[in-house]
Amino acid sequence: MKTLRKIRIGMVGGGPGAFIGAVHLRAMALTGSFELVCGAFSSDPEKSKARGAELRLPTERVYDSWKEMLDMEAKLPKGERMDAVVIVTPNHLHFDVALAAIKRAFHVICDKPATHRLEDVLALEQRWQQVCAERFDRGREEPIFCITHNYTGYPMVRQARSIIASGELGKVRAIRARYLQGWLATSLEHTGQKQADWRTDPERSGAAGAIGDIGVHAYNLMRFICPKLEVNELCADLRTAVRDRRLDDNASIWLDLGVEDQVHASIEVSQVAVGHENDLEIEIDCERGGLSWRQEEPNSLYVHRLDGPSRIERASAGYLHESALKSCMLPPGHTEGFLESFANIYVAFSQQFHGNTDNGGLASLMPSMAEAVEGMRFIAACVQSSDSGLSWVNPSTLVSDTE
Fold first, then answer.
1. pLDDT tens digit string along 340-378?
2. Helices (H) and strands (E) in the chain, counts
3. Cα–Cα distance between 36 and 38 in angstroms, integer?
4. pTM
5. How many of the other CB atoms lie within 10 Å of CB of 116?
6. Within the chain, what is the greatest distance between any pair of CA atoms?
């Protein structure tokens, strides 16, 4: 079997003390398919150098800015320069970095949401499509765009998707998703806590707080498990519970899905739910049963049937559908957790990069530009619905945050 070379990665963001950058690095390490070769880890050159030293990178491959990194890497021989850039900055920087990388035909792996504004992700999509078309016409490699909706990487989420697709439970009737956290129940952003500070700042986070941070994950999970159920309209009620906070920290969303059979869905989101840590859960009701999955108990998928007993399906079990079984990284009884789910996104990216797109692979499950655009339309629709007095909004028609 041919040994595939490691994919060379450059990282933007992920400086000293950053959370999500370290997650990406650990996820890459789990796959064994990636190599960090360069980075611009902070807007502060000294902090960037310090992080580069921690990661034992050559000093000449640790850059003072992301612009310098892209310029310098593009000048290196193809066999030395980075293949892809990983963007793990606050939201407001995603667009500029991703656009510049795409223009240079670098592959992009971007943390969600894809951009700061809806207009930006649509511009990014247009430019990405143009570059793909140009390079395809010349017989060259087209840039891959990956958005890291990691919760779709859990084996039992993929099992749920396969069960719904099989028709075992019949048509979907209703969906309930919720994502509850309690870490922002106080004015944490005023204490200097870095993660709270930028997430509650509209200049860096965007028009939405909890909706953009975790609500979009719940929405993406629902759409991943039931991909055939297009969203017709949604109505959202965004609230701010903590005094003087500038963005939402609590929300309820109602959605109308489907074409032939109308399906009702709801999403509950909160970052002020004291006692909840990272409580992402989804329940799906169908004609002949239903299923439910919870992120804090990720190895179990609960499947219910009208004509028989309920059952608990477990990660790593031999009866799982192929995509779920191939996504298991650990022996039975070991928790397939947050890092493993992230790693499965990187596995899918690696398969696309190396051209392994056969039906038995996981490449087709990689969240890409389509999910990036859909996520931003969801966020924009929620904000517009809430601001206009809980009106119903069709996300697919939106082209601006301010329509």
1. 999 999 999 999 999 887 655 789 999 999 999 999 999
2. 13, 13
3. 6
4. 0.95
5. 24
6. 65
